[in-house]
Amino acid sequence: MPSVPGQSALNPGVARREVWAWAMYDFANSGYTTVVLTAVFNAYFVAVVAANAEWATFAWTAALSVSYAMVMVIGPLLGAWADAHAAKKQVLAYSTAICIAGTVALAWTGPGAVAWAVVFIIVSNVAYSMGENIVAAFLPEIARPEALGKVSGWGWSLGYFGGILALAISLAWVMTAESRGSTSSAAVPGTMIITAAVFALAALPTFLWLKERALPATVPGARAALARLMETARSAGRYRDLLLVFLCGVFYQAGVATVIALAAIYAEQVMGFKTQDTILLVLVVNVTAAIGAFGFGYAQDRVGKVVALRLTIVGWVAMTVVAFFSRTPATFWVAANLAGLCMGSSQSAGRALVAFLSPEGRSAEFFGLWGVAVRLAAILGPLTYGVVTWVTGGNHRLAILLTGGFFIAALIVLAFVNERRGRAQVA
Predict the structure, then answer these.
(1) pLDDT tens for each residue of 227-246
(2) Which of 70, 114, 322, 342 has an alpha carbon within 20 to 30 A of 123's alpha carbon?
(3) What is the CATH number of the domain that holds 67?
(4) Helix H segments across 304-427?
């Protein structure tokens, strides 16, 4: 991550080392999404664990959907509890440990081990998602309001390099399988150990140097967490623009989640990519995603977070069209790298916009609610894709084209969001 160009972006008392430690969590957990959900294990599940059964893609998306449904229930309550107890860091530690353990368990999957794979995908992904919500809730504590986009971009861009590291080591492990007397498919379980190790080591700076600045509520506990959520529900009118951002997030994150969960499957099933081809593609896409996150992080603070998000969603629409018409590896590479640019920028912009519009002292709660929107999207998008491929006998092209409809719906909702009004409502 580039050095912080001065302290103006950070709140008083926040050291450069601390913001780097916060961003390192993005670096640490990106290996999980990149290797497990995007590039390696998802395609392995369909082709090897489920033996390319007609229901295989649907089973993968259903497992993810169950995990996201659990996060939708747990996320807001756990976020409100963490706020009430000033225990965000404690929750982050537990979620990290569970995700790492669940990822290690995936190393014991093989042909026919569908139930085992499904259970530990659910366990690891629930824990990953909770950690993603909680670490985002630190953003308003470390960055000034006018620099939320920039600092969010630092984290997202550094995060993609964490994904690159885990994926590069995994690629080396898979490509050297024959020299060890194995095969590339048989080497995939080993990449789960690699991913878990990178996560564990890279997350250490977060727990060493990131500070918990919140103060416990006067009456902490489950009752306080529920009371906070009830207060939010009663005063929903105050948060009109933030709620619209949540609705927009449901739609555009549905498309993003579909690409993350099914990109490798699409590459192998439609474009004929081999495992190593797919890993190389995702490696390069992570670089373009880092560029998108870093560049748009600065741009969104200048042009406005809503405008920046709108531009990236338009890019997502273009990506789905290019992917639908791709008939050669070269054109699919174009679509994939366009997705990378849009992914980095849209994820950074969404996190910054939620931080900008959230009330002070309740960031974990509202990022828990943002997590509900994101996980609902992660159910809606991939499950829709899985159903389309199932009922059409494997028509992945139609499924990716329909994914573009989610991005168009997001643009319509985003047109009603007023960034300044939303900030004034919670200032």
Answers:
(1) 555 565 555 566 788 889 88
(2) 342
(3) 1.20.1250.20
(4) 305-325, 329-357, 363-391, 396-414, 419-426
